[in-house]
Amino acid sequence: MVARGAVLERPARLVQVLRLLALYIVRVVVSRGILASRTVRRVLVLCVTVTGLLMGSLSYLFLRQSGDDAQVAVFVFRLMAGSALLWALLSVLVVRVLVQGSPEMMATTTLLPVTARERQHAVNVLEAVLAACVSAAALSSFTTGAVLAYGAPVMAEVLACVVLPCLSALTVLLILCRLADLAMAVVGIGGMRANIIVLALMLVVVRSWGWLADYTRRVSASALDGGEEPFTLWPLVFHDLLTVHGVPALLLAAVVATMTGAVLILLVPAPPVPVRPRYYALRLPGRLVALAPSFSYHLAQAARSRFVVDNLMISGTAAVLILALRAPISSVWALEPVVMGGFFHYASVNPGLLVFLPRQNTVWLYAQMVGAQVVIVLPFIVGALLLDAMAGVITPQASAIACASVISSAVVTVSVGSIMPAHDDNPVSVLLGTAIIGVILLLAALMLGIVQLPVVVNISAAIVGWIAVAAIGVAGISYNRKVSHS
């Protein structure tokens, strides 16, 4: 009876941990960031509404070009099934990179009468929720446009080709990651478990690009020659189920898939994340420290952070994959994970700066944070450019665009970390901050695309947008430091 009671209490303990995590998100993530301002919330709601309307309208116009031809609509949805799986994979990869460094967020639960395994289980549930939110945000515009274009009758196709494939892929990927984590823990692999899983996901992402092209070709060929046999393309299993057995069978499959996914996410155990150092013992040149002590503080934060060191391993593997698979993209793109340390930079350095430099100029502080990220990634950019030159298949223009993107990402990540400081390295602040800046940039891009301005004007607008993102970061620093002093 005691053992049975202990088993029955586990769901209740998990719920308690999840409730505490929700309270943490409200009080630490939302209430201590710019979202605490009612004016900011109203402006963001307006931006999200306008962006959603524009994206839905563009999807509507794209879909309506086919007129009322049901066969064309079904063809578009069948193509979308492959994209839904790819978005699910990308969502799991992004969230996994962010969540793997967040054990500090669980420090608030150490006083609860729960085991370390149950605390990690709660983090995995949070990971699943975040991955589902990222996928939903990526696929919402197409779904909205489809409903507007074809009305309620198309909901079955949306469910069969978008919702259920994405939901099933998320469940399978998350459970496979958890089982791989358990297997590596059993054989004694410690701190490298998270990195190995991320590298495996990156390999799957790289391979998926070729798979998606082949999938698109087969779907297009089947549309031209009269169609393939049902249940031959696994992304279309729910679509074929709808075609062969009708809506009731699809709804039954939806209920079964949802319940199965929820049970697996809740019941499959997860090993506790091993304790790892937050910083590595890397020495900076003594002359640099003497000449620029303030900048050296930021450079040490960037160079010694485990986020940067771990992501360098990920970037190196990605660069090797790009070269080995002869992917038609610049190796510089592989360095995007390196600048992700900017998400956590401000939250890490701000407590010390409030003590030693409480009145430091916010523009200068922001410039130093971005400069530290750029100095770290710059030598690797040079190495990636040499790889591009040796490969001989990447144009200088493509390499230059990749370099500009990586440098711009450093600005964006630092700005995100400044407006929504990632206290305790929590991933929720990063995703919310990225969503805030992403919505603003997407809205501006949509406006420029609608107006159809000349290329020179678009480039100038991109530069202005880059400056605006930096200004948002500076404003975030000013706001958060003011709140810290009050």
From TrEMBL:
Assigned keywords, A-Z: Membrane, Transmembrane, Transmembrane helix
Lipid biosynthesis keyword on record: no
Regions that span the bilayer: 12-30, 42-63, 75-99, 125-148, 154-176, 183-206, 247-268, 306-325, 337-357, 363-387, 399-422, 428-448, 455-479
Domain of life: Bacteria
Protein name: ABC-2 type transport system permease protein
Species classification: Bacteria, Bacillati, Actinomycetota, Actinomycetes, Actinomycetales
